[in-house]
C-alpha cells in the first residue's frame, strides 16, 4: 500500500513497520539470504538461529478470513525465523486466557496475544510474564498492552481509524449510518464505531449482530434496513460482515451503500464491482508477521520494537482507485 494513502498523524510508524519487514526478509540466513519460492511468493531463507517455540493466541473465530491472514503472516515469519509456531484461538476471553495458561504450562519461549477483552486476559498474561516469558500484543488492546505487561504492540489505533472512516463517510455525502458490531464488548470494535461517530459528526447508530452466525447477521441487517429506510450507509467491521450486508441491502430493497473495515479476496471483487465502496485496511498479514518477527528479534538479540509506543499497521483506504494493486496481493492470500 502506498503510504500516501495513510490517514493518521502517526503514519510514520507504518513506514517503520514496512522497513522492519523488508530488513527481516532480506537478512542473511543459512541459505545465503536468497529468497525461496512459496505459494504466496513470500518465502525466504530460514534463519540460522536456535529453534524456539512461540505461541500465538488470538480471539479470532474459526473460519474468519481476517484471522487466516494474521495466521499466515505469523506462519511466514515463523518459517523464516526457525520458530515452531503454536497457533490457537478462542472467541471468549476466559477460554482465550486458558490458552495462555496452557502455553505457560508448556514452557513456550514467547507469546503473541490479542487483547479484545484486556481485563479478562491480564491475570493470565501476568502469570506468563512472572514465568519469564516475553509477551507482545497485536490487533486488539492498543490502550491496554502496556498495563498488561506486553513489550510491544502491532496494529492500528481503532479510534483514529474510525475517525478517518467517519470523515470519509461525511465526504461521501452520507446522512444516516449504521455501524455493525459483530462481537459486542470487543474493545477494538467498540472503539471503531465510536471513532466513526466522532469523525462523521452526524447520525450513527450501532447495530449488534452475532458474527459467528452469518445467516443471523444477514437477517438482522435486513430487518434494520426494512425498519428504517432512511439509512443510506452501512459500515461493517469485517469483510465477511460487509458481504452479508450487500445481500441484506438487496433483500431489503435498500439503496444503502456499504463500506467496511478489513479485507479479504472476495471483498476485493466486491470493491471492483462497486458492491462495496471502500475498505479500511489494517494489514492483518503484517500484524501477524511483525508479532512473531519481533519475538524472534527479542529472543535472539534482545531487541524491542516501537520504543514504548504502538507500531501502527494502518489505517489506509482501499477503493476503486487502488484496488487493482491490492488484488495482486489478495491472490497470494496475503491481503
TrEMBL record:
UniProt KW Nuclease keyword: no
Record localization: Cell envelope
Domain Periplasmic binding protein: 63-301
Protein name from the UniProt record: Monosaccharide ABC transporter substrate-binding protein (CUT2 family)
InterPro entries xref list: Bact_Solute-Bind_Prot2 (IPR050555), Peripla_BP_I (IPR028082), SBP_2_dom (IPR025997)
Domain of life: Bacteria
Keyword Signal applies: yes
Signal peptide positions (record): 1-26
Matches recorded under Gene3D superfamilies: 3.40.50.2300
Record keywords: Signal
Record's GO cellular component terms: outer membrane-bounded periplasmic space
GO molecular function, one term: carbohydrate binding
Family annotation (PANTHER family): ABC TRANSPORTER PERIPLASMIC-BINDING PROTEIN YPHF (PTHR30036:SF7), D-XYLOSE-BINDING PERIPLASMIC PROTEIN (PTHR30036)
Pfam families with a match to the protein in the record: Peripla_BP_4
Main location: other
Family, as annotated: Belongs to the bacterial solute-binding protein 2 family.
Amino acid at each position: 500500500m502506498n503510504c500516501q494513502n495513510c490517514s493518521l498523524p502517526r503514519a510514520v510508524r507504518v513506514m517503520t513497520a514496512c522497513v522492519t519487514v523488508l530488513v527481516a526478509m532480506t537478512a542473511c540466513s543459512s541459505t545465503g539470504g536468497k529468497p525461496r519460492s512459496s505459494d504466496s511468493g513470500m518465502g525466504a531463507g530460514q534463519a540460522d538461529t536456535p529453534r524456539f517455540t512461540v505461541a500465538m493466541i488470538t480471539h479470532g473465530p474459526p473460519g474468519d478470513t481476517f484471522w487466516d491472514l494474521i495466521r499466515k503472516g505469523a506462519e511466514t515469519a515463523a518459517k523464516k525465523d526457525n520458530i515452531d509456531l503454536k497457533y490457537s484461538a478462542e472467541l471468549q476471553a476466559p477460554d482465550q486466557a486458558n490458552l495462555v495458561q496452557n502455553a505457560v504450562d508448556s514452557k513456550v519461549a514467547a507469546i503473541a496475544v490479542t487483547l479484545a477483552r484486556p481485563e479478562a486476559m491480564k491475570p493470565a498474561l501476568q502469570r506468563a510474564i512472572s514465568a519469564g516469558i516475553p509477551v507482545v500484543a497485536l490487533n486488539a488492546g492498543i490502550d491496554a498492552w502496556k498495563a498488561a505487561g506486553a513489550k510491544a504492540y502491532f496494529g492500528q489505533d481503532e479510534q483514529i481509524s474510525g475517525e478517518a472512516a467517519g470523515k470519509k463517510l461525511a465526504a461521501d455525502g452520507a446522512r444516516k449510518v449504521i455501524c455493525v458490531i459483530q462481537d459486542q464488548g470487543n474493545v477494538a470494535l467498540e472503539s471503531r464505531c465510536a471513532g466513526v461517530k466522532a469523525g462523521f459528526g452526524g447520525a450513527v447508530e450501532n447495530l449488534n449482530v452475532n458474527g459467528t452466525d452469518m445467516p443471523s447477521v444477514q437477517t438482522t441487517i435486513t430487518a434494520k434496513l426494512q425498519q428504517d429506510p432512511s439509512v443510506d450507509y452501512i459500515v461493517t467491521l469485517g469483510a465477511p460482515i460487509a458481504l452479508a450486508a450487500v445481500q441484506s441491502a438487496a433483500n431489503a430493497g435498500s439503496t444503502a451503500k456499504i463500506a467496511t473495515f478489513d479485507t479479504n479476496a472476495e471483498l476485493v471483487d466486491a470493491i471492483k464491482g462497486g458492491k462495496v465502496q471502500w475498505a479500511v485496511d489494517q494489514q492483518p498479514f503484517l500484524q501477524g508477521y511483525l508479532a512473531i518477527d519481533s519475538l524472534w528479534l527479542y529472543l535472539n538479540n534482545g531487541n524491542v520494537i516501537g520504543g514504548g509506543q504502538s507500531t501502527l499497521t494502518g489505517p489506509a483506504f482501499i477503493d476503486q482507485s487502488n484496488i487493482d494493486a491490492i488484488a495482486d496481493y489478495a491472490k497470494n492470500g496475503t491481503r
